[in-house]
């Protein structure tokens, strides 16, 4: 059955309540049955993923969390369950320094961390066992997967590292996104995100030095954190250089893999102007941009939602099915 157009459900009206829904009212999810999959890194250490199998999968979905998240976050787990229910196997990855994988590798992740993703993609292809390997990224997770798809060094036999990609509420211009989250109206959001990032970083018993510990005491914004931690750790001179290099907006014309960007116009974190411009100019034929009037940041809680799948989860699963089964998108799903 095709989805109806997105309509916010009571009482989650407006971008902020949509964004906060999973924090204010935790989804009631079944126990996590994911199978741990350590992924060895060439530089030493490992990342930790969790495999949610399916008896007859249409494809394997590599599912990535956003900034300050992990494979355990409720919204990401619900997305995984919805994908499983739609016929997909899922591999939920903890990026470097995140979640239960914190102790397995020193350091922290970035929006451009392709050297970490390379072994994950190899493991994913093995688990897919000849089926397609597709990606779904929530917020910064989508940015990370986009950057991977734009890296020719990750191609396999001349083809993109993924067979399809969905990005939900993902920043394409990191500088613009940083400025958005620094707005006074987002002060509480930014404090929450910075607190999580600092906590993840301080939990690294090996990879943090005294200079970084001192710098973290002065971090108040996401830009501060990227200036003190992310940029130097990943070889950039400052946050501005990191934002420029790691923003996929500058390379999207080179994107070859069928991709979807789902974005709400009332997203309080990631401004929709970049997505609107991409949709209007249509300079990237491989990227389908779908804008909803409401939905917040990775919210998309709609009338008729199932406890184990919000509208955004179901939209993602149906779009992937349409692409993999070569069915017309416009015949399957509502578009603006």
Write the layout of secondary structure elements.
Blueprint: H1 15-24, E1 35-40, E2 46-52, E3 60-64, H2 74-85, E4 89-94, H3 114-128, E5 133-138, H4 140-149, E6 165-168, H5 174-181, H6 187-202, H7 210-216, H8 222-233, H9 239-246, E7 259-264, H10 273-281, E8 287-292, H11 311-324, H12 329-332
Parallel strand pairs: 3-4, 3-5, 5-6, 6-7, 7-8
Antiparallel strand pairs: 1-2, 2-4
Describe the model.
By secondary structure, the chain is an alpha/beta fold. It has one domain (15-182, 247-332): 3-Layer(aba) Sandwich (Rossmann fold), CATH 3.40.50.1820. The protein has helices at residues 15-24, 74-85, 114-128, 140-149, 174-181, 187-202, 210-216, 222-233, 239-246, 273-281, 311-324, 329-332; strands spanning 35-40, 46-52, 60-64, 89-94, 133-138, 165-168, 259-264, 287-292. Strands 1-2-4-3-5-6-7-8 form an eight-stranded mixed β-sheet, with helices on both faces. The longest helix is centred in the middle third of the chain and has 16 residues, at 187-202.
Mean pLDDT: 95
- Approximately what portion of the residues adopt beta-strand conformation? 5-15%
Q: How far is the N terminus from the C terminus?
A: 19 Å
CATH-defined architecture? 3-Layer(aba) Sandwich
In DSSP terms (H or I, runs of 4 or more residues), the helix count works out at 12
Which superfamily, in CATH terms, is the homologous superfamily?
Alpha/Beta hydrolase fold, catalytic domain
Amount of helix: 25-40%
Kindly report the spatial arrangement of strands forming the biggest sheet: 1-2-4-3-5-6-7-8
Helix-and-strand structural type: alpha/beta
Gyration radius from CA atoms, angstroms: 19 Å
Largest sheet, strands/sense/barrel? 8 strands, mixed
Number of strands: 8
What is the helix/strand order? HEEEHEHEHEHHHHHEHEHH
The CATH topology assignment is: Rossmann fold
């Amino acid at each position: 059955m095709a989805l109806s157009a997105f309509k916010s459900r009571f009482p989650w009206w407006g971008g902020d309540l949509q964004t906060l829904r999973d924090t204010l009212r935790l989804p009631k999810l079944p126990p996590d049955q994911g199978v741990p999959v350590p992924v060895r890194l060439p530089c030493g250490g490992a990342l930790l993923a969790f495999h949610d199998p399916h008896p007859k999968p249409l494809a394997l979905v590599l599912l990535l969390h956003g900034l300050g998240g992990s494979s355990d976050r409720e919204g990401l787990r619900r997305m995984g369950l919805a994908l499983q229910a739609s016929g997909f196997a899922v591999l939920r990855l903890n990026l470097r320094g995140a979640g239960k994988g914190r102790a397995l590798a020193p350091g922290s992740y970035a929006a451009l961390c392709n050297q970490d993703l390379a072994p994950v993609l190899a493991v994913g292809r093995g688990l897919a066992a000849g089926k397609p390997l597709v990606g779904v990224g929530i917020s910064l997770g989508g940015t990370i997967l986009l950057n991977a798809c734009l890296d020719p060094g990750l191609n396999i036999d001349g083809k993109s590292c993924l067979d399809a990609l969905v990005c939900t509420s993902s920043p394409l211009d990191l500088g613009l996104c940083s400025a958005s989250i620094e707005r006074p109206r987002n002060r509480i959001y930014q404090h929450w995100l910075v607190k999580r990032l600092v906590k993840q970083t301080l939990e690294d018993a090996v990879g943090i030095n005294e200079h970084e510990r001192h710098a973290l005491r002065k971090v108040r914004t996401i830009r501060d954190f990227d200036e003190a931690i992310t940029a130097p750790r990943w070889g950039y001179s400052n946050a501005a250089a990191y934002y420029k290099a790691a923003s996929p907006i500058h390379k999207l014309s080179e994107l070859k893999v069928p991709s979807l960007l789902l974005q709400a116009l009332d997203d309080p974190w990631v401004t929709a102007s970049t997505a609107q411009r991409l949709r209007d100019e249509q300079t990237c034929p491989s990227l389908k941009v779908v804008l909803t009037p409401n939905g917040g940041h990775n919210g998309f809680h709609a009338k008729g939602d199932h406890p184990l799948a919000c509208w955004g989860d179901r939209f993602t699963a149906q779009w992937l099915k349409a692409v993999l089964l070569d069915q017309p998108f416009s015949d399957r799903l509502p578009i603006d």
